[in-house]
């Protein structure tokens, strides 16, 4: 039986709570001496006074030693333990006659209503789980020898309204009055120095309690879920508000914390939604994780000067909090610390804070002013990967911000949906290296201009995604920017009309200007080092957004000489693009990609391919319906014209205005139906004296070849088109 009790207690301790109590020192109803024993109708049978048949039968079955059908007072005096676990008993009348009883277990006796132990003087300890689950128990009278109340002793005694703890009690163990939901009055004697974990957790009817001044420690979760508790005193000997101490005390309005307290633990006041005022003592150095989470009535709070750390979600959803002052000693602010503080209007970030991570001020919808202490040591503002939260996300009232010079990294989503943000500046001497990781200024629809600091080397992700009022993006003189990549940097910036790409940029990749429908002028600074213009970012099988996709107002563009590769759907659906030129001395070697480079550029009439190009393929001009001329520069090095055929996409598919096409003499290979599904009769001039390798051409055409090579073509793989081959006159 003892083993079963231990296992049951261990199981409970893994996941549940506690109860609560009050000081009974001056209670006039507290007995000074044992209650009178009931009269014995049969002086030779202690069971004759019992009014509970089940208890009576238990005593006859276990304590009638001489089998005479009675339990004599001598036999009763020999009993040291009674185990009534889960018995359906209602009363224990007569238990006082068991004068040497040391151990009593009534766990699970749901029908038991009252117990008088005043005559059982050998019981010095209310054992672990002694009355656990006695939901009908409404009265308990202790003897004056009790020194300890064990773990979970009165757990789930939901009918117990009052408890008078004897002055002899020194220890009250974990969960002693856990979930005594009817308990309204508790007296705790001054002999008690600690109130252990979960002692009064779930005592939802308890409104107030007086804790003796002798108590030096209130353990974790002691008053957790005491939803009716409105006031409480904390003795001056207490040095720490432990984890979960007042969690979900939803009626608690005010509390005075003594000056001796140096730490406020995790979940300490979590869910105290009625808490209006609290003074945090000057000795406090740390405010724990979710300490004031959901304290929705809290208006003001002063953080003491000794605090160095504010834990994760410490003031999360304190939606009435208007003012909070952070002392200069703060070095760390946890993620979500002030998230959803929807009444907070301003905040000053202390100098020693080196990182803002996660959604610290996310959804602070009234936050207008964010400043950083002079000499700020802040290094990064980054997203929390686990929660996907971002520092100022949805701060819809924020209008301006200056990023400290010390910041090196601005990460994903930091100012996402700051819809009133009109000005973002960077402190002089900024060390910012990277603006990356996703949607830094996504949906900042009031932002009109921004200058990127010279120190920035990387812009990556949907940084300005849907900044629909953004008209000007400039780069500080001396910029070190190397790469603009990773997705949708300026996607849906529908007011952006012009941009100059700095000479330092080497790579442009992904859907950088996707759907910039007002963009009319894209230039590259003189001396450009740009090498790659690619329409893809990553290895996704699904076609991503292209660099200039849906830039429907862009009329022309000049590709820098430094560019070596153009790949993927770079100019997809640039429906106004009429003129594509290449800077003199072009180093371009490849124009290719399954997802067409100039697909749906329906205004493009002609293009000259630089001599440096060696590879020309993919569905490059798919549906360029106005394209009438494709010319290869003199001295071309082109070796192959290939089609990465996919779902009917071909290099010149639907180029219905193209009637003449000249294949340079340098070409050695033509593959995969470059004119697939071509409806217009085409004149193809192949200038090579040696017939290039070919697969198949699915179009109506006449092939013109050098006269001296006519027979060579007719006897080569071109013989399939024997009747369509003519000499060049």
TrEMBL record:
Residues 20-41 are annotated as: Disordered. Gene3D superfamilies: 3.40.50.12480, Ribonuclease Inhibitor. Residues 20-33 have a biased composition (Basic and acidic residues). It comes from the Bacteria. InterPro entries: Leu-rich_rpt (IPR001611), LRR_5 (IPR026906), LRR_dom_sf (IPR032675), Surface_bspA-like (IPR053139). It holds the Pfam family LRR_5. This is Leucine rich repeat-containing protein. It comes from Alistipes timonensis JC136.
